[in-house]
Amino acid sequence: MKAIRRFTVRPVLPEPLRPLSELARNLRWSWHAETRDLFQSVDPEHWATSECDPVRLLGGVRPARLAELAGDRRFLRRLTAAADDLHDYVTGDRWYQAQSAGLPAAIAYFSPEFGITAALPQYSGGLGILAGDHLKAASDLGVPLIGVGLLYRHGYFRQTLSRDGWQQEHYPVLDPHELPVTLLEEADGTPAQVSLALPGGKALHARIWLAQVGRIPLLMLDSDVEENALGERQVTDRLYGGGSEHRLLQEMLLGIGGVRAVRTYCRLTGHAEPEVFHTNEGHAGFLGLERIAELCERGLDFDAGLEAVRAGTVFTTHTPVPAGIDRFDRELVARHFGPGAELPGIDVGRILQLGMETYPGGEPNLFNMAVMGLRLAQRANGVSLLHGRVSREMFSGLWPGFDPAEVPITSVTNGVHAPTWVAPEVFRLGARQIGVQRTEDALSAGGSERWDAVGDIPDQDVWELRRDLREQLVVEVRRRLRASWRQRGAGTAELGWIDGVLDPEVLTIGFARRVPSYKRLTLMLRDRDRLMDLLLHPERPVQIVVAGKAHPADDGGKRLIQELVRFSDDPRVRHRIVFLPDYGMAMAQKLYHGCDVWLNNPLRPLEACGTSGMKAALNGCLNLSVLDGWWDEWFQSDFGWAIPTADGVTTDSDHRDDVEAAALYDLLEQRVAPRFYERGRGGLPDRWIEMVRQTLTLLGPKLLAGRMVREYVERLYTPAAHAHRALGPDAARELAAWKGKVRAAWHEVTVDHVETSAAAATSAVAQLGTTLGLRVRVGLGGLGPDDVEVQAVSGRVDEEDRITDATTVALKPAGAPDPDGRWVYEGPLSLDRTGPYGYTVRILPSHRLLASGAELGLVAVPHEDTSEDGGVLLR
C-alpha cells in the first residue's frame, strides 16, 4: 500500500550528544576527516548503508546505541573536540582576515548547481562541482561569501542501464527534511519566502533552505510550496529539465528571487550586505535586473542603476561554444517582464536590449543569457588561459573595432578543493612528512609555489600508496559492476566473472565525465583491434574504468554510452574495461584515488577547463590529455603526456578522430605502458614514481581551489568592491550621462591625419632604438580631450600588416583646437623590436570610472588614406 502522506521522524538525541546535530548540519564534515571518523564510530554498519550521510545516520541509529554513546566518556571527549574544532573554524580569523583593508564586506555567488557532497545531490557535472569547491575554498580562506542556488526536488537524474546498454533515467524525490539543510525562518518562526510576479496575475513563491558549508551560507530556493499552483510548484523540480518557459522561470527565480533571498537572509541574520555579486555562468544573469530595480526604487534612473550594478558585478563564463548558452525567444522574455509581470517599473525594451545578439552573425530574435551577463558585469573571466582566449574570440562582436586580445574578458583558471578530493591515505602520507596542520594548510589555503616536501617521501612509500589505492578501486568497481548487472536483469549465477574484473597490478586508466559529443567518450574505440591488443597485452596490459552521464534529451550521447557498454560487455575484454553507471561525487572520489592515468580527449578547444584531471593529479595520477583547458596551460612532460591534435580548420571530423585516436594508441603502447611496467634495480618503477613525485611537487599547488579563490579576491572581487563604492548615486548618474553623451557624439570622432618625424617619413627602414615623433590631427566633435584618449598602437606586423603583440602609448594634446575645431596630439614612439614593425593611431573613450578603454565598445581609427606609410622595417 502507498502512503497518502510522507513526513520525517527525527531522533531525539540525548543531551550529551546534541553537538552531533550541529556537526551533521554543517557540511564541513564532507571534507573534514576527523568529523567523518566520529560519525562512522557512532554506528559503522549504518554509516555504510547511509552512504556516509550523517543526517541519515542519526535518523536510523537505535535509541539504545545513542544511550550507550551518551555514557561513553571517550566518545564524548572526541565529540567535544570535534565541536570545538568546528567552532574555531567558523569563527576564527583566516587568510582573508589577515589581508589589508578594502576587501569586500561580502560577496554573493550565484550558480544553478552546487556539488558539495553526494548527500546533497544538487549538481550535474563540472559547473556544479566547481561551484561547490569555490564555496569550500572560500570557507577555508575566510572569504565572506553567500552562495545562492535552487533546491531541486529531484536533483539531477540517477542513471541505470538497460540489458542492451541504453541509458535509463530515474528521478527519486528528495525530501528537504532528510537533507543536511534547514529552513530559513522569520523572527516569528514562519518560513521566510520570496515571490515573483507572473503574467496573468499569478505569482511564483519560494521558500529558502539554508545549507551551511563551513563558514559559508548556501541559500537554496524551493518552489514546491502550498501557496503555488501545480505548475509553479514544479519550477524547481529538476536540474536542467523542462522546456524553454520552465528554464526561463528557473533562471528568473535564481537571479531575481536569489537577490531577494540574499536581502532576506542579511536582514534576518545581520550578515553584511554583499558589495560584489558573482554570476557563475549566465543562468543567474537576471540578478542584475533585480538590483537595477532596487536602485530605481531609490531614485536612480535605469541608466544610472545599470552603471552602479555593473561596477560591482563579476561574470564567469564556462562555455566555449555558442550552442552551450541558454537563449530564449524574445517574445517569451518580454511576456514575463513589465506591467502585469515581474519588474513592472523597468521598460521591457531596456531589458531586451541587454540580452539581444546585436552583432554580426547574431540571432536578432533571441535573448542570450551570456550576452546579458557580460553587459551587466564590468568584470568577466573565462576559466583557463586558453578558454579566456576562446571567450574573447566568441564574444568579440560585443566590442566591435577591437582585436579579440583586447576584449575585456580575463581568465582565472579553475582549481579543485583538495581536502574533498584527496584520498585519506594521501593526506596521512603528507601528515607523516610535515605534520597534520601544515598538510591541511597546504591543501586548503595553499600559497606555496612548490610542494618540495614530497621529494623526501621514499619511493617505496609512494608506490605502496598507489597500489593500495588501485586495489581499493578494484574492490569498488566490482561492487558497483555487480549492482549494475543486477539492475540490467542478470542473476547471481551469471555474475561469477565479476570476481576477476580488473587487477590491482595492472596499469589503470580512468575516463569519467559528462557525455556530450565533443568529449569523445568513444575515441578509444576508433580502432577496436588496437584497443584489444592494449587491454590484453601479455606483458604490459592496461585496464580502463569509464563512467559518465548523457543529458536525458541527448540521444547522441546515449548512443555513445551504449556503444562503449556493448564493447565492455564482450567476454574477451570485460575483465579489462568496465562502464560504471550513475557517475556522481561518491564514485568520482574512488576513481580519482585509484587510477594511474587520467584520460581526457575532447575536441580542442572545446574543454573550458576540465577539472577532473586536476583531482586525479592531486592523488598522484598522471594525466594523458589533449592540450585543452588547464592542461594546455600547465602541461610539462615531467608529469604527463599530451595527445597531439589535428585541429586545422580544413580537417574532416572523421579524419581528425582517426589521427588523434592513432596518436592516443601510440602514446599508450610506446610511452605510457612501458614507463609503468619498467622496473629499476630495486624492483620499483623508478621513472614512473618520479613522474608522480613531479606531479605533486610542481603541479599540485597550482591545482588548488584555494589558489583560484585567492585570485578571484585579488583580481576581481576587490577591484569590483572598489568600483562599487566609487559608484554612489551621484557618480552613477555622472557616468551614465557621460556615456550617453559619448555614444551620441562618437560618429563625429575622427583621426584626420597622422605624420611622423621627418627622418622616418623618408624611409621604410629604421634603426633599433630609434624614437619617432608622432603628430596626429583628430576631430572630437562635441567631445573634449577629457573625454578621450588618443593612443599610438605599435608592434610587429604579419603578412597582412596586422599588428601583433601590440603596445599602446597615450599621446598628449598640443595646445588648443585649431579654427576648424581639430585637435593636435603628439608623442614619442620608441622602436624597441626588430623585424617587420608597424603602428597605427586610435581614439578611445576615457573616464576615471571605466574599468577598461574597451568598455563602451567604441573606437575611432584612421581611414586608409589618412596617414603616410606606417610600416617601418627595423634592422
UniProtKB/TrEMBL annotation:
Keywords: Allosteric enzyme, Carbohydrate metabolism, Glycosyltransferase, Pyridoxal phosphate, Transferase
Catalytic activities: [(1->4)-alpha-D-glucosyl](n) + phosphate = [(1->4)-alpha-D-glucosyl](n-1) + alpha-D-glucose 1-phosphate
Top EC category: transferase
SUPFAM superfamilies, per database record: UDP-Glycosyltransferase/glycogen phosphorylase
One Pfam family from the record: Phosphorylase
Cofactor(s) named in the record: pyridoxal 5'-phosphate
DUF3417 domain sequence ranges: 13-120
Highest taxon, organism lineage: Bacteria
EC number annotated for this UniProt entry: 2.4.1.1
PROSITE patterns for this protein: PHOSPHORYLASE
Similarity field: Belongs to the glycogen phosphorylase family.
General function of this protein: Phosphorylase is an important allosteric enzyme in carbohydrate metabolism. Enzymes from different sources differ in their regulatory mechanisms and in their natural substrates. However, all known phosphorylases share catalytic and structural properties.
Protein name according to UniProt: glycogen phosphorylase
